[in-house]
Amino acid sequence: MTEQHAIYQEVSAILSKLFEIDPADIKPEARLYEDLELDSIDAVDVIVHLQKRTGKKIKPETFKSVRTVQDVVDAVENLLREE
């Protein structure tokens, strides 16, 4: 399993658990706001959970440009690469 796949699984689990989103609806290209019906408060919840899981501080600016599930995965992957 690649690191990106593991991150994707984690992000999917968080979205499914927190917002009761059907895992079948969580695809890399799914748009957070339009397709998954998240709002900005939900996005903050996702960031908080990802911070707990990664042990890294996530800057809000990092998530300003995030629009899809894949964007979240990429942002987390980049974060984990930083020292």
The portion of residues assigned to helices is 55-70%
CATH topology grouping: Non-ribosomal Peptide Synthetase Peptidyl Carrier Protein, Chain A
C-alpha Rg (nearest Å): 12 Å
- Helical element count? 4
Sheet of most strands: none
CATH level-four homologous superfamily name: ACP-like
Q: What is the CATH class name?
A: Mainly Alpha
First CA to last CA: what distance?
23 Å
Structural class: mainly alpha
Low-confidence stretches: none
Shape-level CATH architecture: Orthogonal Bundle
Strand content: under 5%
Order of helices and strands: HHHH
Task: Sum up the overall morphology in one term.
Answer: globular
Whole-number mean pLDDT: 91
Count of DSSP strands: 0
Number of domains: 1
Question: Can you tag this structure with a few keywords?
Answer:
0% strand; 83 residues; Non-ribosomal Peptide Synthetase Peptidyl Carrier Protein, Chain A; mainly alpha
3D structure, described in words:
With 83 residues, this protein is an all-alpha fold. The protein has a single domain, classed as Orthogonal Bundle (Non-ribosomal Peptide Synthetase Peptidyl Carrier Protein, Chain A), CATH 1.10.1200. The protein has four helices and no strands. Helix 1 crosses helix 2 and helix 1 packs across helix 4. The protein is globular and about 35 Å long. The mean pLDDT is 91.
